[in-house]
Amino acid sequence: MAKRENVGVKQVDISQSAKAYQVLSEQIVTLKIAPGSIMVEQELIAASGFGRTPVREALQKLERDMLIQILPRRGILIEPIDFERPLMALDVRVRVEGLIMERAARLSSDMERRLFERIALQMEASLAANDPVAFATLDQNFDNHALHCARHEVAARVLRPLHAVGRRIGYHEAISNPFIQKKNVQLHINLARAVAKEDLPSVYQYLGGVFEATRQSLLALGDMESVNVIPNPDEGTEIMEESK
Question: Lowest mean pLDDT: which of 118-127, 140-149, 193-202, 218-227?
């Protein structure tokens, strides 16, 4: 009986850690926590609403995702945004992600295919509402569902942190250049539907389109310093955050 209780406690801890990770990851990806800032653990506990243990476990995962650096005796560095790391991540994704999408298209159950269709519909709604925050969450849901349906844990471990790097630069682009973001969202919608239908030629076509659009937008960022200017979508102004 005691053993059962211990298992239950462990499951709750894992759940709290996952929720803390989700909250902090979203705040970093959507730039609510500024790139280049150095924070202390207590600030992130307050920002997430979770306790010390779940937050510490979440921070370990965020560091693996290359979104933060844990600096001993100094704090937690929120990685500055640059375009070199996402470009390097894209080089790896081009070589691995096709495997994931092909396997997801071939191996998904009927229920899993319906979820791809539902994600595509929700992405359409985010596009109509011009809501980059909603799309960032849906993009993560799509990536995670594809990784699950592909049933290839080695490839999944390679891709998860690369997806996190891509989502943050994608959100920055969404509020900097809405026209390019709309094209990118539509490519994701088409890709999700192609996977759902096991339409492999279209899967490769739209995945290639996503990669090319991503590469072109990264190259267009140009000036390294300008990338850490955070556009303010509410006021149409920009707030400069100092990289440390």
Answer: 218-227
Architecture of domain 84-229: Up-down Bundle (1.20)
In the structure encoding, which two tokens stand for residue 56, read together?
């510490």
Cα–Cα nearest to 196, from 125, 118, 124: 118
Distances (CA, A) of 6 to 54, 59, 78, 113: 17, 24, 35, 36
Query: Could you tell me the pTM of the whole model?
Result: 0.78
**Pairwise CA distance, residues 123 & 178, whole Å:** 15
Do the beta carbons of residue 130 and residue 153 sit within 8 Å? no
Q: In angstroms, what CA-CA distances link 181 with 186, 191, 210? A: 9, 15, 11
E strands present in the chain? 38-39, 68-71, 75-78, 229-232, 237-240
Which two three-digit tokens encode residue 22? 């989700």
For domain 12-78, the question of CATH label 1.10.10.10 is answered with yes
pLDDT digits (tens, 9 = 90+) for 176-197: 776 667 888 999 999 999 999 9
**Domain map (residue ranges) of the chain:** 12-78, 84-229
Nearby residues of 120 by Cβ (< 8 Å), 6 or more positions away? 189, 192, 193, 196
d(CA 207, CA 191): 6
Which two tokens mark 117? 């269709």
